[in-house]
UniProtKB/TrEMBL annotation:
GO terms for molecular function: flavin adenine dinucleotide binding; FMN binding; NADPH-hemoprotein reductase activity. It is an enzyme of class 1 (oxidoreductase). InterPro entries: CysJ-like_FAD-binding (IPR003097), FAD-bd_FR_type (IPR017927), Flavdoxin-like (IPR001094), Flavodoxin/NO_synth (IPR008254), Flavoprot_Pyr_Nucl_cyt_Rdtase (IPR001709), Flavoprotein-like_sf (IPR029039), FNR_nucleotide-bd (IPR039261), NADPH_Cyt_P450_Rdtase_alpha (IPR023173). One of its GO terms (biological process) is response to hormone. Keywords: Endoplasmic reticulum, FAD, Flavoprotein, FMN, Membrane, NADP, Oxidoreductase, Transmembrane, Transmembrane helix. Its EC number is 1.6.2.4. PANTHER family: NADPH--CYTOCHROME P450 REDUCTASE, NITRIC OXIDE SYNTHASE-RELATED. PROSITE patterns: FAD_FR, FLAVODOXIN_LIKE. This is NADPH--hemoprotein reductase. Residues 280-515 form the FAD-binding FR-type domain. Its cofactor is FMN; FAD. Residues 80-225 form the Flavodoxin-like domain. It comes from the Eukaryota.
Length: 654
């Protein structure tokens, strides 16, 4: 290193001392600041919260529904099972009655929905001593099984090798003679079970809803049970007392958010709507149009439009819309007054059979008012079993005797029995005071009502149209009876006290369709409100023409009473004819002259309401004979082939 002069050395040492002094001051400041920060952090930080020890939750395994009816019967000591195929609830009701009957003969029965069980187990029923399978099977549409019996029907068709030789069975069929395929499902089940080796222990019963279905069932049932006793060597116990299926529980302290207020399935489903929408989860559709269709006359024919925007509901022309009506509040209040009860008590009706899949007869917990308004049919004439069970609550022996006679199939009982709802029976028999919980157990469920959709989704994708006539008539006793659904719909104003009126609804698919090829010609025959599906067809054919598609001939036959009163959709039909959507519009007004003129004068069709489908078919047989040069047998075969190919379709309402 080079030597420095003293002056330079002194200057350097002085600078180093100053720097040392400066660094010492900075260090002290930094250390102090750092210490302060640490002290602040230590003094102010939150103490770490102890980590809680979570106990392992005992989550119950999801309940799996028992699909083995054999195991359930063994577990509960039952030897009779009654399967039902039911679309409107009548088949299920009959099945419940038969299963309860078994107790009177020292046997135990259960009603069962075939959709919920493995029907392949029928071959195992012989494992249960003195076992019997009863089938209450309704026919739906054109000879089809009901929705809940479809899988069972498919199973019967597909299993030719099934051995049912150990199965004892009988069938009661529910149908309507006005339909082409009368009781087809019941007849098929009866025949097919025999083909697979099962033993029929009593003849097939045929119930006709066009006549008196209840009477047909009671007559069959009265002969059926003696045959069962003879087959199994048992005797009636002679116990004619009432057999309760449910027990009532009153809720005095319950969260009202847990109480059903009219929902069909999920609790609060009307408040929080979630698709998909179906029979157990209907959509609340706002009413956007409700107008009277007829210009004059005593009847009220109406056109409603339901808004389905945002529901993701899709429909096709020819489909049906199902609506869930409610009973008239005045009738509900009257029923409460007659029975002297508080309708706003919250209750549950709980099944006494804890193993039953059906825990309650309707959604519970709920109030009596809600049950009588939304869930129970209080306007239908009670069936004989209801009359019989209610008879015990009449304090006047004469009333009790008359009730029992009305419940029987005797000629004397038929004379006494006048068709009337439960309210009128209670009015006419002041001594009859049944407990309201037992009455609620016995009354049938209020069913959805179906209407042919009167619109096309091509033209109205967010709207469903209904065409209906309000049902109202005077009875033999001078009272006025009103149809539940049509009067309820009539009062569904577009806005009610500032609120939109809504209708709980869903879509039921139909086989009633326009031809796949738009060029195929179509003949449509629809008197009165039977025009409904054809309005959808006409709209669709018009839409196709607007799209530039070639459309075949479209011929409409329509009949009503008076041109100036009930010529439904006159403007729309005449406009469709004017624009060429309708090739021909043929109309008959039956009461606009001295002698009635019916559609028969126009297209050889007799306009008898209950036999409309058969009469139309007969007219086509005649036309085919005449123009096709065929015999009656050949004409019949030809028309039936048209049906098989889907070229002849019917949408029949009885």
């Amino acid at each position: 290193m080079a030597d420095m002069d003293p002056a330079t050395t002194t200057q350097t040492e002085s600078m180093m001392e100053e720097e040392a002094s400066l660094f010492s001051s900075l260090d002290i400041i930094l250390v102090t600041l750092l210490a302060g920060v640490v002290l602040y952090f230590v003094m102010n930080r939150k103490k770490p919260e102890p980590i809680p020890e979570f106990k392992k939750l005992d989550t119950p395994a999801p309940t799996t529904r028992e699909t083995s009816f054999i195991e359930k019967m063994k577990k509960t000591g039952k030897n009779i099972i009654v399967f039902y195929g039911s679309q409107t609830g009548t088949g299920e009701e009959f099945a419940n009655r038969l299963s309860k009957d078994a107790q009177r003969y020292g046997m135990k029965g259960m009603a069962a929905d075939p959709e919920e069980y493995e029907m392949g187990e029928l071959s195992r029923l012989s494992e249960i001593p003195n076992s019997l399978a009863i089938f209450c099977m309704a026919t739906y549409g054109e000879g089809d099984p009901t929705d809940n019996a479809q899988d069972f029907y498919d199973w019967l068709q597909e299993n030719d090798d099934e051995d049912l030789s150990g199965l004892n069975y009988t069938v009661f069929a529910l149908g309507n003679k006005t339909y082409e395929h009368y009781n087809a499902m019941g007849k098929y089940v009866d025949k097919r079970l025999e083909e697979l080796g099962a033993k029929r222990i009593f003849d097939l019963g045929l119930g006709d809803d066009d006549g008196n279905l209840e009477e047909d069932f009671v007559s069959w049932r009265e002969q059926f049970w003696p045959a069962v006793c003879e087959h199994f060597g048992v005797e009636a116990l002679g116990d004619e007392s009432s057999i309760r299926q449910y027990v009532v529980k009153e809720h005095t302290d319950i969260n009202m958010n847990k109480v059903y207020t009219g929902e069909i399935g999920r609790l609060q489903s009307f408040e929080v709507q979630k698709p998909p929408f179906d029979a157990k989860n209907p959509f609340l559709a706002p009413v956007t149009v409700n107008r009277r269709l007829n210009k004059a006359g005593d009847r009220h024919l109406m056109h409603l439009e339901l808004d389905i925007t945002g529901s993701k509901i899709r429909y096709e022309s020819g489909d049906h819309v199902a609506v869930f009506p409610t009973n008239d509040s005045a009738l509900v209040n009257k029923l409460g007054q007659l029975l002297g009860v508080d309708l706003d008590v919250v209750i549950s009706l709980n099944n006494l059979d804890e193993e039953s899949n059906k825990k309650h007869p309707f959604p519970c917990p709920t109030t009596y008012r809600t049950a009588l308004t939304h869930y129970l049919d209080i306007t239908q004439s009670p069936r004989t079993n209801v009359l019989y069970e209610l008879a015990q609550y009449a304090s006047d022996p004469k009333d009790q005797e008359n009730m029992r006679k009305m419940a029987s199939s005797s000629p004397e009982g038929k004379v006494i029995c006048i068709v009337k709802p439960i309210i009128h029976i209670l009015e006419d028999m002041p001594s009859l005071k049944p407990p309201i919980d037992h009455l609620c157990e016995l009354l049938p469920r209020l069913q959805a009502r179906y209407y042919s959709i009167a619109s096309s989704s091509k033209v109205h994708p967010n709207s469903i149209h209904i065409c209906a006539v309000v049902v109202e008539y005077e009875t033999k006793t001078g009272r006025t009876n009103k149809g539940v659904a049509t009067n309820w719909l009539k009062n569904k104003l577009v806005t009610d006290n500032g609120h939109k009126s809504t209708v709980p609804m869903y879509i039921r698919k139909s086989q009633f369709r326009l031809p796949f090829k738009a060029t195929n010609p179509v003949i449509m025959i629809g008197p009165g409100t039977g025009i409904a599906p054809f309005m959808g067809f006409i709209q669709e054919r018009g839409w196709l023409k607007q799209q530039g598609k070639e459309v075949g001939e479209t011929v409409m036959y329509f009949g009503c009473r008076h041109k100036n009163e009930d010529y439904l959709y006159q403007e729309e039909l005449e406009e469709a004819e004017k624009t060429g959507v309708l090739t021909q519009l043929n109309v008959a007004f039956s009461r606009d002259q001295e002698h009635k003129v019916r559609l028969a004068s126009v297209c050889k069709i007799c306009l008898v309401a209950r036999n409309m489908a058969k009469d139309v078919q007969a007219a086509f047989y005649e036309i085919t004979e005449e123009l096709g040069g065929m015999t009656r047998t050949q004409a019949t075969d030809y028309v039936k082939k048209l049906m098989t190919k889907g070229r002849y379709s019917q949408d029949v309402w009885s």
